[in-house]
Amino acid sequence: xxxxxxxxxxxxxxxxxxxxxxxxxxxxxxxxxxxxxxxxxxxxxxxxxxxxxxxxxxxxxxxxxxxxxxxxxxxxxxxxxxxxxxxxxxxxxxxxxxxxxxxxxxxxxxxxxxxxxxxxxxxxxxxxxxxxxxxxxxxxxxxxxxxxxxxxxxxxxxxxxxxxxxxxxxxxxxxxxxxxxxxxxxxxxxxxxxxxxxxxxxxxxxxxxxxxxxxxxxxxxxxxxxxxxxxxxxxxxxxxxxxxxxxxxxxxxxxxxxxxxxxxxxxxxxxxxxxxxxxxxxxxxxxxxxxxxxxxxxxxxxxxxxxxxxxxxxxxxxxxxxxxxxxxxxxxxxxxxxxxxxxxxxxxxxxxxxxxxxxxxxxxxxxxxxxxxxxxxxxxxxxxxxxxxxxxxxxxxxxxxxxxxxxxxxxxxxxxxxxxxx
Length: 422
Prior knowledge:
Blueprint: E1 2-7, H1 10-20, E2 27-32, H2 37-40, E3 42-43, H3 51-60, E4 65-68, H4 71-75, H5 78-84, E5 89-90, H6 98-101, H7 103-112, E6 120-123, H8 126-133, E7 140-144, E8 153-156, H9 159-171, E9 182-186, E10 191-194, E11 197-200, E12 204-206, E13 211-212, E14 215-217, E15 221-224, E16 229-232, H10 239-259, E17 265-275, E18 278-285, H11 292-296, H12 304-313, E19 327-334, H13 351-354, E20 359-363, E21 366-369, E22 372-375, E23 379-387, H14 390-401
Parallel strand pairs: 1-2, 1-4, 2-3, 4-5
Antiparallel strand pairs: 6-9, 7-8, 7-9, 10-17, 11-12, 11-17, 13-16, 14-15, 16-19, 17-18, 19-23, 20-23, 21-22
Helix pairs in contact: 8-9
């Protein structure tokens, strides 16, 4: 079988790396890919948002399965385009992907099915949003309705920060149409947890849990990013909590989607806040997380291809998933200045010295230039290590990171650290 992976980040490199291990896979293509995916298979110079060109490539090259990474490709309807062409694809339809592409749609669905989440109000006018904020308690969370590259959520500590966020989204259109409608909700306290579930419409299978580190700097300081590291399994999610989550979130959600005429087939990635009253859903994502995928897939012992195919075919109830008992820790190395302005084209050294049987380096913002690997994005590499414990995996990951260098690189030094909620 030939497989096409759509996207260019660390998540896509991890997916291509894992899919290549399947005995039934002959060749992997990644569009557009990076310097890491080039080592797994062939890169294809087609942007992830060029849906007609991707469909043509899949048809002309007899691709047996396409796996979609980016949220914006799913929100644009890549699954619908491929299915209309009779092409096999892993990822939810445009209608189902609204769970991620519209926080308002997701919030209304959660309300209707009494899924535990933060109390919230929805606004389409700036004046109404500001009036609500002036009567609110702080801190408070302001969310752009649509996709904003992981940066459309602002935690405002006071009315000044809150009004500035509303102004930036609704008046200045910092996130384009994505921020013209807002969800303003209470700020939940607790520790976050990332869950992934394969969903075939009626059935689901949970993947290993993980915890992400969103803030740019140590101690959860600085602005939000796409994610500066992750570890798996999460240390704040027990078997009992998973049972509760499945009953209180997954089952009502799938029921609610079916009641609205939506069939969800793909990867569902709920982000949770583990509060004193139990898990609360922060948001739903409809694709593999980044960098959570880079921590989860190295622990997956099962062949990924049959799992994805069973999801497409509505046959997940026939399969079981096996996991490595070892922990995984992923540290993201970023360009200097990220998540704000940064320079690219910086040569990367030490990649071969850092890799080992228990350390996998997933490329994100990289490209090959004159035979050398150079930086090409904000998040450059995701260094993942396995260990008998989280502490052992963490030590191994940072040992590998220390062997890698590029000008201006920065990374958090407290991924999977020993803070009060770690």
